[in-house]
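Bumping my old thread because nobody answered last time. Still need a sequence for this structure:
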């Protein structure tokens, strides 16, 4: 009887350990739900200071960013600047070109945001530097534009 109990216990533990073991192949293959949510990023990962974007543009290249800055809209000069003074002193390296092509430009009156501090969210491209390559990069595919009070 003791022998049968021991064998039963060994078999039970063996099945239990097999059931708990992970398939090493499944670690490398995300299921469809993981793939579906791979684009979700933490708020802290895209809500950054404009200073970080200016200093380390390579870190945010082709990533969604949300920044606060001074917006200027004019012919060949659509840009968001670190400060109003950067705009007034024509310090374009402290600014990012903004590309409002797409849905947002047709939905809102952009003029009500001109010459104001705004919060803007879009995809950052460090290689596209706006008119005559004067800016620190471009914010494109803009999905958020609000006045910052």
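Sorry it took so long. Here it is:
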């Amino acid at each position: 009887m003791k022998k049968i109990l021991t064998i039963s216990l060994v078999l039970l533990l063996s099945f239990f350990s097999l059931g708990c073991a992970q398939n090493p192949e499944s670690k490398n293959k995300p299921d469809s739900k993981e793939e579906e949510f791979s684009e979700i990023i933490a708020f802290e990962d895209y809500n950054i200071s404009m200073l970080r974007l200016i200093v380390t543009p390579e870190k945010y290249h082709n990533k969604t960013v949300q920044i606060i800055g001074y917006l200027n809209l004019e012919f060949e000069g659509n840009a968001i600047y670190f400060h109003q003074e950067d705009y007034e002193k024509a310090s374009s390296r402290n600014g990012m070109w903004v590309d409002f092509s797409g849905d947002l430009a047709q939905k809102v009156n952009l003029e009500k945001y001109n010459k104001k501090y705004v919060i803007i969210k879009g995809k950052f491209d460090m290689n596209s530097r706006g008119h005559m390559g004067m800016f620190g990069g471009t914010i494109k595919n803009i999905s958020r534009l609000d006045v910052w009070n």
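The chain has two domains: 2-35, 43-147. Let me know if any region looks off to you.
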